[in-house]
Structures are given as C-alpha cells and as structure tokens.
Description:
Chain A is of the alpha/beta class. Chain A has helices spanning 13-35, 49-54, 62-71, 76-84, 93-108, 136-144, 170-195, 201-223, 234-246, 251-269, 296-302, 330-343, 346-350, 357-368, 383-386, 389-399, 420-439, and strands at residues 39-42, 58-61, 125-128, 153-155, 280-286, 305-310, 373-379, 405-410. By secondary structure, chain B is an alpha/beta fold.
Amino acid sequence: xxxxxxxxxxxxxxxxxxxxxxxxxxxxxxxxxxxxxxxxxxxxxxxxxxxxxxxxxxxxxxxxxxxxxxxxxxxxxxxxxxxxxxxxxxxxxxxxxxxxxxxxxxxxxxxxxxxxxxxxxxxxxxxxxxxxxxxxxxxxxxxxxxxxxxxxxxxxxxxxxxxxxxxxxxxxxxxxxxxxxxxxxxxxxxxxxxxxxxxxxxxxxxxxxxxxxxxxxxxxxxxxxxxxxxxxxxxxxxxxxxxxxxxxxxxxxxxxxxxxxxxxxxxxxxxxxxxxxxxxxxxxxxxxxxxxxxxxxxxxxxxxxxxxxxxxxxxxxxxxxxxxxxxxxxxxxxxxxxxxxxxxxxxxxxxxxxxxxxxxxxxxxxxxxxxxxxxxxxxxxxxxxxxxxxxxxxxxxxxxxxxxxxxxxxxxxxxxxxxxxxxxxxxxxxxxxxxxxxxxx
Amino acid sequence: xxxxxxxxxxxxxxxxxxxxxxxxxxxxxxxxxxxxxxxxxxxxxxxxxxxxxxxxxxxxxxxxxxxxxxxxxxxxxxxxxxxxxxxxxxxxxxxxxxxxxxxxxxxxxxxxxxxxxxxxxxxxxxxxxxxxxxxxxxxxxxxxxxxxxxxxxxxxxxxxxxxxxxxxxxxxxxxxxxxxxxxxxxxxxxxxxxxxxxxxxxxxxxxxxxxxxxxxxxxxxxxxxxxxxxxxxxxxxxxxxxxxxxxxxxxxxxxxxxxxxxxxxxxxxxxxxxxxxxxxxxxxxxxxx
Lengths: 441, 289
C-alpha cells in the first residue's frame, strides 16, 4: 500500500500540471477500453506513436504505469508478484512491475485492489519496441503474453548506425532508414489487420508535421534553460518530458511546450531562477531517475545546486538542425528523424580524438549550460540505459576536463534499493567537492 | 545557557584550540588540536549518540586540560554528525578524511577508507576531494563483514590480520554477500580447511570487492588506507597486492576524519567567516532535544 510521501517543489507551472495530465491519459485508456476503442500496450521513444495517433488507437503506456507505481511508493506488491511468478528481481523493474500487474489482473479477471490511478486495462495489442535502447522492451510483452495468450504482439526493430571510427555514418544511413521504413510499414499492416481500419496517409502526414513542430518548440523551450539563473531544473524536466514521450503527435503536446516556452521566456526576462542563490550548475548526465525520490532534486536545490540540463528524456533535437533529406512519405520522414536523432552527435564526436557521441553530448551541454559538475544515477535494474555511464564519465575527464561527479545508486521503481540518509550524505559530500573545486586556483 | 563566540579569524593565535568529532557507525573519534594534536580519543559508538558525544567531548577536554570555551571552532563529522548539537558546523566524513590524511600524508592521491558499516574510495588533491565513491549498501566490503566472520570462526577480531598471514593456501570464497559468505565459511570449516586459509580467503574476497569499487574512480598513487580495516594487516597486505602498488596506513588510521574535521574548523575560523553567533552548550542531551 502506498506510503505518505514528501512532495516535490515545482519551479514551473508547466511541471505542476503534469500529474493531472498523466492521470488524464491513464483514465483515457480505461475509458477507451470501456468504449470499445482499440488499445495497445506501448513504449516511449518507440517512433510509432504518430502511427497509432493517426489510426485512433489508444496507447497504454506500460513504462509510465510502472513509474507511477514507483512514484506513489506502490510498486513493491507488483514486483513481489512478478518474483512469485519466477521472474528474477535483477530484471528491469519497469517490466517486472508491469508483468506482475498483468499476472495479477488476469488471475483476478479485474484490476488488482486499489490499483494506482485505476490500473492498466487489458490491451487489444502489444507493440514492442526495443530498438537499440533497451532489450526488455523486446521481451516484456512476450512475457506478458503468457498471461494474455489471445493478445497479439508486434515487435518493432528500429536500428541506427552505431558510432565507429572506421566509417562515416552517412555511408550507411540510407540502408538503415530503408530497413526501418519496412519495419514501420509492417507495423501499419499489422495494425490495419488487427483493427480492420485503413491508414489515412494524409492524416499521418499531418500528425508527422505536428510532431516536427513539437520537436522544434521543445528544443527551443529547453534551450532557454541555459540562462543564469536557470528557470527550470531537471526535477521539473522529469515531469515536463511527459508530453514529449507519451503525447507526441497531439495538439495537446504542442500547446504544452508552447506554453512552457512562454513561461520560461518570461522567467528568463525577469531573471527568475529555480532558486534565488544559484551556486552550482549541474548536469543530470545519465540514468533514469529514482521515481520515488524526485524530492532529492529539492534537496540539491537546498544546497544551492540546480540542474539546467539533463541527458535523460531529452529525446528531441530541433528538426531543422538534423540535416533531414527532403522526402514526402510520412513513414520515411519518421524513419529519417529517428535515425538522425541518434546520429546527430556522430560528426561532432569524430572531430575530437577519443570522443563518442554520448561523451560529446555531455561536453556540449557542459559548455552550453555552464556546468560545474555531473550527476549520474545507476538504477540497478536498468542495464541497457546505464551501461557505459562510468566509462563516459572517465572519458569525459580524459578528453575534456576534470569535473566533480557523483554517481547515485538505487533503482527506477524498487524503493528497497534506496536509502535517503545515504543518498543525502553523498550529495552533501559532492557539494563539498564542488565548493572545493570552485575555490581551486 | 548560550554563549557568544568571541573573536574573528583575524586574531587567530597559537593558543586557539580546534576540535573534530567523528561519530562513525562503529567507533567515535575526537581530536583537539592547536598547532599539534593535544588530545585524542577513540571509543565505541553507543546508541544514544547525543549523550555519548557530550561525554567523549568532556573526556577529550579533560585530557587536553582546557575548557570548552577555549575551543575556537568545533566540526562534527561521520554519519552521526547531526547528533552533536554543540558543534559549530557539520561536514561530511569524506571531506574530513581527505583533509585529515593530507595532514599526515600530503602525497596521497587516493584514500580507501574501510569503515565499520561502509567503505569509500576518495580521490584527493591538496587535501580536497576531487572524486569519491561509496559502498554503503552492502556489508561485504566493510568492517562488519570481518566482524561477522570472526564471530563465526570464534576468533578475536584483533587476531584476524595476524592469523591470515600464516595462510598456506587461501580458500576461495565465491560469495559477495556477507550472509552467504558466512555459510561458505561454515562449509569450509566442515571440509577441514585451516583457519588461517579461511581468514586469508575472506580478506581476499573483501579486498577484491573494495578494489572493484575503488577502480571506478581510477586509483592514483600514493594510496592510503584508513578506517578500522586499515588495522587489519592481512587485509591491507592482500589489498596492496591486488591494487598492485604500495599503500600507506596513517599513524592512527581511525583518527583521520576527526583530525580533518578539526583542521577544516581551523580553516573556517581563519577565514573569519562564517563564525557562528552562538553555540549550543556542552550539556547532556538526548535524541529528543
């Protein structure tokens, strides 16, 4: 059962709206089920969100549900349920939480008691999308299918050229994009078969146009955070990422970031920061956050530290900076945008010996946002997003400069991995190191 | 009763005393110094930390033959630092260790502190922390690990290091969990393994775990080992072998945090700010105060 939690301070009005938005789309999925609309289990950063929006298929965001359970300190019972099903506790706790929930709901034939925000409805389809980000997102729905054998799954495999010294990504990008377009086309076929609806290609094109504009306004709004003092920190960005990853291709998402832009612009013009006395500017350099401990961002703020920028959940670039080829097929546009997002840092990294796109991105943000120190979070159950964090940090110091750094350790959902006392002790020490670093000649 | 601090940093002199109190999970350490250490104390940490802090401070003052009002600045550190109401400031133990080790061993660049309940690796430059990493989740890299095993083996904790040096063929302890390692030790005993070989195996398992953690911040020479673990010659020897470079143990490895606290207090007082306006009295207090 959920415990009473500390609330986190929001610097922006936009971030404060997010809990209601999340609740709304969670309830929308429940209502869609009742109304007989087609629903699908979906993953963030899937590149298919515009496709399902264009076909009026209602997404049920399974990672988000696990995050909500974590933030409400109510994930343990679903994790324990998954463990009782024989799944290892060392697997992704988003997946464990979701599978544990599915197993319980299917056994009961109704939602588990007091399910957070009404729970996740039984989907009509499950759309996997591991890409090169996360292998559980290929296997999760296959495991859930054990409890829902009648629910079909489709596993979308979008790839992008990996960074290597030996070749230029431009030589192979075209090949990757062709493959990805075929994947997306196969998904459309699958959705048409399952729903009995035909894709409206004009509508998809309009949705892709809207998504392009949304990418641009997000990038422009977030760039305002370069200001000193910064008008918004990562604690808020962990909220404002919601429309970016769960509502892409909707007018609501575009309007949200348009409002955020206006709000941040006003704050910058008024010299209004997250905190009054900004002493240390930090980057959240990687790792998914501990959803149950977002109040730690307020703890950082209390020490004079702010996070003007983060790597995590900054899932967009300005489309006009991506050197996109002129293509008209909306599936090709989606495929190119996805590919270019991942290869955006390749050229910059190639120019700096020993660099890597992930390291180059850190360096660029450190420069652009006047960063004093790096904080990363190692969530023990999230292997794929966290592999290489230490290497990136060491490489950063090797090829760029020595910056104070802090590695926090816990999990995304599993609260048993977290100790507030130890975490605050680490933060205190890190602040000491930042102070010493600032005073060093 | 509360009393006011008397002077600013500009009139600091040889007669000024500074104190550091380091309340660790297992041991509490106090140092009083002016130019040199004039008194130091190491006692077991007791559950009522506020009362204990008061008592050990009085004992240290008595050893130094000074009154509390002669202590110009007092810094509390360690995980129990918030339980020292009469401290002028609380500073984290990592910063204090860095400063304290620098006092004795200025060439040290990496400190490995093996405490009672946790273990830390700290990179330092000129006595200041440049990077650090902690293991505070698992007892397997801490003094607690050795305590549990010593208890299982019926060996006095202080004899563990010496005994392990006579090992001929250290056993392989594969578990990285204290509870499972304890089971493994019982099994090895049943198999007839020699006591020194088992203890050496335990030290090796622990040293590998500590080394794995310390490597994450890149171990740079010179390396110092502090904390209670530094008093275990068997553990220090095997850790040194695994690191592949000589290590140094400070004169009194338990005191570096308290020394660092006193030195940082001195630096703060020297700067003249932020001098606290008032300090809580040295009087018996409990958790409820």
